[in-house]
Amino acid sequence: MMPIVLRFLERILCLALLGLSHGALAAPADEPLVFVVHPFDTPSRLYQRFRPLCNYLQEVVGRPVSLRVASTYEEQIQHIAEGKADLTYIGPTPYIRAHDNYAPVRLLAAEAEGGRVFYQSVIVVRRDSPIRSLADIRRRTMAFGADKSFSSFYIPRLMLQNAGVQLSDLKNYAYLGRHERVALAVLHRDFDAGGLRLEIAQQYLDRGLRIVARSDPLPPHAIVARPGLPEPIAQAVRAALLAPNARGREAFRAMGEDVSFVPISDSDYSLAREVVRKLQ
């Protein structure tokens, strides 16, 4: 009988220890963490891209993780800064606005692709367009994404400015929100040119878009935690991003063929702050 009793007690002790070690992650177990993303692509594509990541993090923290797509960049900023969301995938400009103007949101890890911790913006035209350089966009129409988007407004605007083209030199311009809308508006001849993220533009090259110019490497998107997120949860998410298991690596592939996550610090966004200050 003693061996049976001892084994029973050992199991109880193990369960108790597990409960202590994971209690901060799992309590309250029925209250989901909220993961919000900005609307840089269609909602269906964003759900396909980020749902596997949320499922992976759900396993890590032992609590449901609910995915939400913000209706605007400003909504994303407010949700993560005000604690309406617990985690977010965020670009440079929204991160700066949330961190500097609202509350000290916390960087957990930066997105890398193919080992490169950066991404690029592009300015596109139709394949049959006479536009061959950025200077040719003067006195033509230009589509941007959201007015708070680093990759579909600030950087395309800086690229034009460096080519001697100011917003006042354009015949007309507009903010269309999602990057996909920029691509489609150019394809449909609503605008002569558009600024958006490279990876979104590449999806439309075989449909008739042409890239006129690419930006220099830009500060990465990152996973950020709200102020006050319990430390055990923040540390567990950070560890799961930086050292993923097989399920994690599979979830990352849904975000991109070669996506991984690397350490990041606030100082890595100094360039983004300089660009925003220059153009405001």
How would you explain this protein's 3D organization?
By secondary structure, the chain is α/β, with parallel strands linked by helices. It is built from 10 helices and 11 strands. Helix 5 links the parallel strand 6 (141-144) and strand 7 (172-175). The protein starts with a helix and ends with a helix.
* Backbone CA Rg: 22 Å
Tell me the fraction of residues in β-strands, as a range: 15-25%
User: How are the strands ordered across the major sheet?
Assistant: 2-1-3-10-4-11
Outline: globular
Specify the biggest β-sheet.
6 strands, mixed
The tally of beta strands, per DSSP, is: 11
SSE run: HEHEHEHEEEHEHEHEEHHEH
What's the number of helices? 10
Give the proportion of residues in helices: 40-55%
Structural class determined from secondary elements: alpha/beta
Query: Which stretches are low in confidence, meaning pLDDT under 50 for 5 or more residues running?
Result: 1-27
Cα end-to-end separation? 77 Å
Q: Name the average pLDDT.
A: 89
Walk me through the topology:
Blueprint: H1 2-26, E1 33-37, H2 43-61, E2 65-69, H3 73-81, E3 87-90, H4 92-102, E4 106-113, E5 121-126, E6 141-144, H5 150-162, E7 172-175, H6 179-187, E8 193-197, H7 198-201, E9 209-214, E10 222-225, H8 231-242, H9 246-255, E11 259-262, H10 270-279
